[in-house]
């Protein structure tokens, strides 16, 4: 059976076009220019004042819990969990590489822009555990005083993108919603906790998306073996629609995937038939060879018996 690599052209997360990457890069450059110019300072102050007026002990607890889920260490743990699972091992490695790349790049990019954190300081209205602190956006001292682009949001985007790509086979709507909503929810917590301004979040979102897409394309996440492709398509894509027996959330893409699965199955069936034919030919050739060897071995013995019989008759 053949195990040649198979290219998944259905999943849009693994097949982002270069034109989209170019558009994201241009958008990041524009956002960076706007953030560096300082023209959004009044907007940032208004947003900070709004969230400051909302501060409440219950909201403090909720937003602190939510924002902690995007801590770099927690996302790294999630990446290791994905690597433990055989089916998602490759994508767990891609997530870990993306997180490391984003953290390093953001650390050295922040000083270039030199945009400082919001002036407001978050003071919780609840008692937090001793020695508990909100994770800094950067670990290196040279970048800890700056906030653009947001490392937390960029990492959250990478996580959302990978999870979205994995869940696409179940539901395209969920995949797209998770990729968009998870970083946005984390962004709201950063605004509430006065860790970032609005432009920091937008810049982090674009930057994280650019990096994870480049890594996904560079590591060829859309390449898999026919065996894995068939298993994933059969076990994960074919989800029954509530109204009937039709496949949902994939549209024409799923129909195309089913055709590709059929082609893979047909190719594997033909390979199996060829192997069976070869085995049958081998068995026939083996039997002929053994038969010939037995005849060759028997011929001298028969000749000797005839000679002995002749001698006996003469005597």
The share of residues in helices is: 55-70%
Q: Could you state the oligomeric state of the chains shown?
A: single chain
Low-confidence segments: 239-254
Note the total helix count.
10
Please give a structural write-up:
With 315 residues, the chain is mostly helical. 69% of the residues lie in helices and 1% in strands. It has ten helices and two strands. It has helices spanning 18-37, 41-54, 57-68, 72-84, 89-113, 151-167, 172-192, 198-218, 226-237, 252-314; strands at 6-7, 223-224. Strands 1-2 form a two-stranded antiparallel sheet. Helix 4 packs antiparallel against helix 5 (89-113) and helix 5 packs antiparallel against helix 6. The longest helix is centred in the C-terminal third of the chain and has 63 residues, at 252-314. The termini are far apart. The model is unreliable at 239-254 (pLDDT under 50).
Topology diagram in text:
Blueprint: E1 6-7, H1 18-37, H2 41-54, H3 57-68, H4 72-84, H5 89-113, H6 151-167, H7 172-192, H8 198-218, E2 223-224, H9 226-237, H10 252-314
Antiparallel strand pairs: 1-2
Features:
two-stranded antiparallel ribbon; elongated; single chain; 315 residues; 10 helices; mainly alpha
What's the short story on this structure?
Helices cover 69% and strands 1% of the residues.
